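Need a sequence for this fold. Nothing fancy.
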């Protein structure tokens, strides 16, 4: 199937439309992360089209061009990444149709790449305890890292959610926090007494740091911490502890612990910020067998015969 069809046109290029598309997203109150993700998909598409001698003028981009790009994504990245880029481009071309730049989206009737079902290894309680054991309670960094690890494992926050927390979002006395989830949707999440104690100990030392006046909850030597800084500290602690743990696996740990305790799945959706029941199934898949065996042992049906 030919993928290099080009015609002479006066229509704007995808690059020309990028600022207007971003402005429309911001006007629609899309989160900064969403605007960034959509922008990355657009730039990757343009880079691919240019590298392969394909048109970048919006009127000349056809289905075969987008399909070729999606194939390249599947070959280079995980199915999950390819799906995210696919959905981002659907939004882009849908916006182009609504703005009258084109009459029909080149992605009309296109189906996204199939998601390969993958199970994420869930850390054990001993793994998380090993992480915590690396944190020196006498230092600001040690207290901060313990509070971060406990909050990940206890509340099941996403990396971006935990990073964006401000001092005013946390009530360590009530054991609650307010977090801005995907789509800038705020929700209230609880945490345990031990996590509250770890936060309290961190905040007491934080008040003596040069960055005590910042709104951001998490501070390092250079000021407020970003997502990469927090991800790196988890990696450092995991290496030191000799375990394989990362922020997202701690979110899985929290979900598994909730389900293993026999808690309500609908409540888990609310706490984790999920809008789809399928997310419960995805997160539960890795440890579903463990929970089933535990339930079987507890039922002890053979002992009743």
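Here you go.
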């Amino acid at each position: 199937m030919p993928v290099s069809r080009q015609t002479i046109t006066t229509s704007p290029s995808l690059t020309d439309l990028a600022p207007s598309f971003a402005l429309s997203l911001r006007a629609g109150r899309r989160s900064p992360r969403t605007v960034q993700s959509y922008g990355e998909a657009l730039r990757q598409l343009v880079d691919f089209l240019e590298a392969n001698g394909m048109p970048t003028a919006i009127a000349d981009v056809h289905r075969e061009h987008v399909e070729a790009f999606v194939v390249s994504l599947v070959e280079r990245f995980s199915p999950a990444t390819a799906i995210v880029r696919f959905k981002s481009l659907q939004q882009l071309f849908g916006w182009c149709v609504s703005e009258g730049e084109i009459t029909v989206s080149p992605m009309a009737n296109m189906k996204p790449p199939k998601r390969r079902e993958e199970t994420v290894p869930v850390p054990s309680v001993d793994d998380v305890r090993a992480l915590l054991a690396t944190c020196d309670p006498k230092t600001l960094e040690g207290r901060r890292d313990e509070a971060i690890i406990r909050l990940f494992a206890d509340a099941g926050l996403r990396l971006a959610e935990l990073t964006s927390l401000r001092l005013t979002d946390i009530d360590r006395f009530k054991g609650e926090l307010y977090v801005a989830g995907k789509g800038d949707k705020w929700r209230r999440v609880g945490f345990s007494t031990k996590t509250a104690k770890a936060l309290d100990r961190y905040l007491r030392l934080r008040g003596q740091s040069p960055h005590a006046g910042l709104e951001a909850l998490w501070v390092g030597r250079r000021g407020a911490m970003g997502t990469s800084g927090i991800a790196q500290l988890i990696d450092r602690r995991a290496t030191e502890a000799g375990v394989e743990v990362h922020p997202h696996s701690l979110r899985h740990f929290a979900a598994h612990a909730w389900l293993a305790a026999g808690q309500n799945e609908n409540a888990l959706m609310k706490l984790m910020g999920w809008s789809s029941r399928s997310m419960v199934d995805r997160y539960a898949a890795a440890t579903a067998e463990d929970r089933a065996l535990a339930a079987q042992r507890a039922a002890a049906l053979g002992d009743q015969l």
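For context: Strands lie at 170-171, 176-180, 186-190, 219-220, 223-224.
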